[in-house]
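Forwarding these from the shared drive since the link keeps breaking.
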Amino acid sequence: MKRSKAEIMEGVECKESKIIDSNTVKYVRPDGVTVIRLHRTDILTFPKRGGVIFNSGGWKTKITKERMNSYQHEAQIIQDKGLWYISSTYHAAWNKDEWTPFFDGIKVKDARIVNPKKTANNKDKKLLKLISGYCKEIRNMEELPVPSPGDCWFCSMRSQDGKSMGDSFNDKDHLLNHLKEKYVHGSLIVNALEWAGYDNPSIIFHMKLKDSIIFAVRRYFKAKLGLAY
């Protein structure tokens, strides 16, 4: 979705602003701090004393990573096996042992990560393991469950704009519970296929194209739970 500068900057006070890329605005706050904003998330903040603060806002997308890497020169965001890391030097980008787990609020200054957290991606690793277990459950099913009135209420009910209630309210807890319980139901599969962009997800579903279904479900969970996808 392409947004205008007015939409991107709605409710944000600034001294000056300009569009620098698709859905991306560079602006200066009243206190003089420069910020790069993608959609409605301030992804890069440049404190007056130097350095840069990174923030995905829970949107660890390819575009977010590209913008972060393009509009600052302090560090590089690297994605590996569904996780984000940060490298503060060009040399370290080729050495996994020197990668630091990414987290929102991480600050880099003068090629040094100011506030590293070694366990920053432990939660993400656990979520990825749960998602893999869920997808394995789908893979092992002889028959896929069809959407029915007995499915999760959040996943099966629709809002006025046609979206599932779970997507409309951005409720992560109920999806996390599905993962933990390995609760596979038809409405969630259809929601994942729709989110993945299939024009007619029912065809994919009824043809039992498990590779396509699992690919969509895996990315759907990652996106909804704030993981890189």
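-- next protein --
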Amino acid sequence: MPESRISRLHVPTEDELPDDIQALFDKCREKPGFVPNVYRAYALRPEQLRGFVALYETLMLGDSGLTKAEREMIAVAVSAINRCYYCQTSHGAALRIRSGNPILADQIQANARAAALSPRQHAMCNFAIKLTEASYTASDADIDELRGHGFTDADVWDIIQVAAFFNYTNRVANAADLRPNIEFHTLGR
């Protein structure tokens, strides 16, 4: 049964929103076919939604030495550690689609260290998890290990930024009790 509540906070109706946010929602209806609840929730503060979307698109869809699937692996690994229901569900769906693997997200959610990843991807996810659990312990040795797997400094920067972004968004989603769209549960399966 679909969940009716999006957040424990007020979620504005579309007619309350500025034209550019309504246009963003219309674009979402074209692809992926629905408005992600995270957008609906962030629309409580339209300027914050604009900033959120701009940063998300830069980090997750922009140019990077990390594939889009690898960035989704980080999102899922971090969200699993933080127990973020919304992001595990929505980015699990994105990872299934981007990787073409219907079980990879489930493996990472259950235990990223046991997931069927390449050594390079394990190093990437392990570092993202370390940043999530104890970022103050990051060291030169961690960076050297990533370089040993072929990551450039720009790639390492992207790993750090994606992990940090999801640590932020997980906390927002958890505090607001943000609920994923039901559509995310079946995408890519």
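Residues 14-61 form a domain with the Single alpha-helices involved in coiled-coils or other helix-helix interfaces fold (CATH 1.20.5.810). Residues 153-176 form the longest helix (24 residues).

- D.
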